[in-house]
Design goal:
Blueprint: E1 4-7, E2 14-17, H1 27-40, E3 42-45, H2 52-59, E4 84-86, H3 102-107, E5 124-133, E6 141-145, H4 146-151, H5 155-161, E7 165-168, H6 170-176, H7 184-189, E8 193-196, E9 198-200, E10 207-209, E11 215-218, H8 223-237, E12 243-246, E13 253-257, E14 261-265, E15 276-283
Parallel strand pairs: 2-3
Antiparallel strand pairs: 1-2, 3-13, 4-15, 5-13, 5-15, 6-12, 6-14, 7-8, 7-11, 9-10
Length: about 290
């Protein structure tokens, strides 16, 4: 079957057919996916009834794996292999998480606009999310095109932000929702890291905003001013014309480039329905900015 990509919006997103993610990819297929990502930043591969092992092998085609385990979970409590970020609402026994469950409260941060692993020195490149059990109401995943958002800025703002460095931490994003229940070792692990606010996407050569709910400050700026400015940029970057909203069907496999997008999940009835999505992630090439010396 020939590989075909149908654009989903004028800026972002494509529906790719002709790839079977359950099988080893040929070099030509890897090139086709990479080219599709450089063009569309988000690819939807429908009807991929994939196993965990197959998803891991598929992901390895696009870079080294980034451990996706939730920082608020101990290894003994993990439902999936540590290569996965478990973005379901069920525990390792298959039971729905209670309203006040610590993992559920921490995972509500996924409803904020963010870029995966921006709180790490080496952030994420591609994220690959498999829809094993999906819901019929709510639960859409929205993607915002950070390239188009940058392009739409006025020249004065582009000049102002060109060399700015932001500080990212999971603590910043979770505290926006009132979640402060971090253990001392978690707080040590979540110390802020630094990233450029503007970076150039290596595959397309386009400049892109590096925004995320994980941003808590701008180096050299007072915190209130920095957070107000980042909020303004987030509002600009998530306007409707820059966004693709994906409504899940079972066995969708969605790939996105964190170097060119932000995303969030929309609210659904997670107390009464099961939603089982499993994410693997690859590492980007390296830090985007020098870090503070230890």
């Amino acid at each position: 079957m020939a590989i075909e990509v149908t654009p989903l919006t004028p800026h972002i997103g494509g529906r790719m057919t002709g790839i079977d993610a359950r099988k080893p990819l040929t070099p030509e297929e890897v090139v086709a996916v990479d080219a599709g990502m450089d063009r569309h930043a988000v690819l939807v591969l429908p009807s991929q009834d994939i196993t965990d092992e197959q998803q891991i092998e598929f992901t390895k085609n696009f870079g080294p794996l980034q451990n996706g385990a939730n920082a608020t979970l101990r290894r003994a409590d993990l439902r999936l292999d540590p290569a996965f970020a478990d973005v379901s609402n069920i525990d390792k026994d298959g039971e729905k998480l209670a309203r006040d469950d610590r993992r559920r409260m921490a995972s509500l941060g996924n409803r904020l606009w963010h870029s995966d692993a921006s709180f790490r020195v080496i952030p994420a490149r591609h994220s690959i999310l498999s829809g094993r059990i999906v819901v019929t109401e709510g639960g859409n995943t929205e993607f915002a095109d950070m390239r188009a958002a940058y392009d739409a800025l006025d020249a004065r703002t582009k000049a102002e932000i060109e060399d700015l460095i932001c500080e990212h931490s999971q603590i910043f994003s979770r505290e926006q929702l009132g979640f402060t229940n971090f253990l001392p070792d978690e707080r040590a692990m979540m110390k802020p890291v630094r990233h450029r606010l503007v970076r150039t996407h290596p595959g397309s050569g386009r400049k892109s905003l590096f925004l995320s709910a994980h941003i808590g400050g701008i180096v050299g700026w007072p915190t209130p001013e920095a957070r107000a400015f980042i909020r303004d940029l987030m509002e600009h970057a998530t306007q409707e014309q820059f966004v693709y909203s994906h409504k899940w069907t079972q066995h969708d496999l969605v790939i996105w480039d964190n170097r060119a997008t932000m995303h969030r999940v929309r609210r659904y009835d997670d107390l009464n329905t099961v939603r089982d999505l499993r994410r693997t992630t690859t590492k980007s090439d390296g830090p985007t900015a020098a870090q503070v010396a230890a």
